[in-house]
Specification:
single chain, alpha/beta, 6 strands, about 30% helix, globular
Length: about 260
């Protein structure tokens, strides 16, 4: 999303859904290093939310990643989040929006140090976000610059913001409003992981509404088919396993949502 977010859901950087235990390292197919790979951790969806220093993928940097891996039926499989070091001398931007201050980034990995892990968990999945143009734009630019995405690739994606008015009556497509209308739980503070979980909840809501309507293939299923054959991602499986230990979730709460009651 263009505007910004903590992970207090567990002490382990990578957890299997509902267990609180580290996800087994060998639980996902691996790709050969230094060549295009497919399959990744799919099939399903990778719901992502980013906190960034600003709005431009070309001139701004990622500060936090929240990733929720969801099966084709909408079931949450596992999730992780981490702060990201944007580099020496880079201003963190609007702290009043994302709540991140420079000192919190001490010990956080740069994106290059976790890129294989991130791409491994994106590969084979349709990328979902609330305002996917923003989040996927940042991912495309940053991971392309690191050689983890083939030049000119169009990442299969689903935007829960763009789909909102197709599956519910809402006065606004903002994440908080959509969640309120759909009855989806959303954290009281902006954080990348909380907002990714909220977007995953919206996707499940859309699936349920589409199922009741008896609709055939819709946006998310088409994206799933595209993701299954997408060969633009590149990653090193061994590096991805090692990078799991580098994740540094946000330690405190994010900025309170002023538009939530209480």
């Amino acid at each position: 999303m263009p505007f910004y977010r903590r992970d207090l859901r567990g002490s382990s950087p990578l957890t299997a859904a509902g267990t609180g235990r580290p996800a087994p390292v060998g639980s996902r197919p691996a790709a050969s290093p230094a060549r295009p790979a497919s399959g990744g951790s799919g099939p399903g969806y990778a719901v992502v939310d980013l906190e960034t220093t600003g709005l431009s993928p070309a001139s701004d940097s990622i500060l936090e990643i929240g990733l929720v891996l969801v099966g084709a039926d909408g079931t949450v499989e596992r999730s992780w989040s981490t702060l990201v070091d944007p580099g020496a001398g880079v201003d963190v931007g609007p702290t009043f929006i994302h709540g991140i201050v420079a000192t919190e980034l001490d010990g956080a990995p740069p994106l290059s140090a976790i890129a294989d892990l991130l791409v491994r968990d994106l590969a084979g999945r349709a990328v979902v976000a609330h305002n996917a143009r923003f989040d996927v734009g940042f991912l495309t630019h940053a991971l392309g610059a690191l050689g983890r995405l083939a030049r000119g690739s169009v990442v299969p994606r689903v935007c829960t913001m763009e789909l909102a008015r197709r599956f519910m009556s809402t006065p606004s497509r903002r994440l908080v409003t959509c969640c309120e209308v759909a009855g989806v739980e959303i954290g009281r503070h902006h954080s990348a992981l909380d907002d990714a979980h909220a977007a995953a909840g919206l996707l499940r809501h859309y699936m349920a509404v589409g199922g009741r309507r008896g609709q055939g293939p819709v946006a998310w299923s088409r994206a799933l088919e595209q993701a299954a054959v997408f060969a633009g991602w590149r990653w090193d499986a061994g590096a991805a396993r090692r990078q799991e230990a580098l994740l540094l979730p946000r330690r405190g709460a994010g900025v309170p949502r002023a538009d939530l009651p209480g």
